[in-house]
Each structure stands twice: as structure tokens, then as C-alpha cells.
Amino acid sequence: xxxxxxxxxxxxxxxxxxxxxxxxxxxxxxxxxxxxxxxxxxxxxxxxxxxxxxxxxxxxxxxxxxxxxxxxxxxxxxxxxxxxxxxxxxxxxxxxxxxxxxxxxxxxxxxxxxxxxxxxxxxxxxxxxxxxxxxxxxxxxxxxxxxxxxxxxxxxxxxxxxxxxxxxxxxxxxxxxxxxxxxxxxxxxxxxxxxxxxxxxxxxxxxxxxxxxxxxxxxxxxxxxxxxxxxxxxxxxxxxxxxxxxxxxxxxxxxxxxxxxxxxxxxxxxxxxx
Length: 274
Prior knowledge:
This protein is mainly α. The protein is built from 12 helices and no strands. α3 runs antiparallel to α4 (about 60-80) and α8 crosses α10 (about 200-220). The radius of gyration is 25 Å and the shape is globular.
């Protein structure tokens, strides 16, 4: 039995290690100076690294990244316990209670035979929870969509909330028309930049509107815009690396080539993927 884990469990060992790292008497100076705000960026980064491992289907890496993400939960819970707010056990109990509450078709008497019905019930239960939490305070159907989410993902979630109460386009074709409208407005402001630098803020606004409506289009056709953009990023990297490799074989660098030459290599990289 490990002396860091009195009951022999890996979770208990991890909690004991974190307590030791945060111990003012002999703990780690770096861990001791952290707070919720300083650790939050690491928590977000670790979540993305989990997603990357899943995307690569690298399961040894996924095991490691899930461990790193679990460490973030343990770190936050330890700081909360020190401040008298809650402990890791409370975190685990809260999510256990929530999962039972949100799955009445499994742990209760409700019926849900299709995934779509489960999703509908889940959203209804979440809405009831938000209303109860708000109490007498004015509440909005958009409450609870985290500000720290990536903007594209947050746009999709806001639109999904609005759609749940009927504020939505009738179909994808209607959204496409809005995409065309926003694109034209963006073009106007981008052209204006050449003569009027003050148009920068208007161009920014129009690009934001365009991205927002594109996120809505993705939602209407059941595409996760964050996943779609992540895949587009990966495709760009893959093809750019192919250009670099082709040039290296020829003894050239990117700086040696004009745009027409680079475009030719780009098209060759695209063709090679088909």
C-alpha cells in the first residue's frame, strides 16, 4: 500500500498528493502561489488537449490527457476546500446527483426510447434547474452559457437556447440567405477600409455577424462549428506541411517562391488527398 494513499485507491493518492503540494509546510512554492484564476487557463488547455487526443484516436495520449484534466479538478477542489467552500467529495456527489436527476428514464419511471427524446428531456430539466437557481431574480433563457467558451461554440449554444423557445430560422435555406446578406455587408466595410481606416470597427462588427450566422447555419444542419473549424485548421496544417516538404525536396524554401508557385503546390497537396 502506498503511504500517500491510506485506502490504496488512486483517487485517494491523487488527493493526498495535491494536499501535500499545497501544504504551507514543505509544499511546492509554485502550487502554493496559485489561485482559481491562475489555474483556469490550464484547465481550459487540458480540455483541448483531451479533444486533440480523441481527434487523433491516440488512446495512450488520451489516458494521459484525461489524467491531466482530472488533476485540474483536484487542484480546484483542493483550493476550494482550503477556503471552506467545498471539497472533492462534494464535487463528485454533486455530479452524481445531477446525472441521476437528468436521467429519469434510467433511474426513474420516465420513458425515452430515442436519443432525440433524451436530449429534449435533458434540456427541459436543465431549464427547470436554471429557473430554480434564479429564484426571484429575473432570468433569461440564455442564462448559464459560459462566457469562457470559445466564441464560435458559445454562438452555437446561444442560438440553440433561442431556438428552443421558437426564435429560429425555419430551415437551413433561410439561414443561407442571411449568410449571403452578412457577406455582402462585410464586403462593403472591407472595401471601405482602403479609404477610411475608421471602418475597421465596422468591418470587425460585420465579420462577427457573419461568423455568428455561419455558426447558426452549422447548427441547422447538425454540424458542430467548433469541430468543423478544428478540422479545417488541421487540413490547412496538413496541406501547408505538404508544401514545405515538396519545396524542401527541391532545395527551395517558401521565401524562394512566388504566390503562383505556392498555389500550384497547394493544389497538388489537395489532389494528393483525394
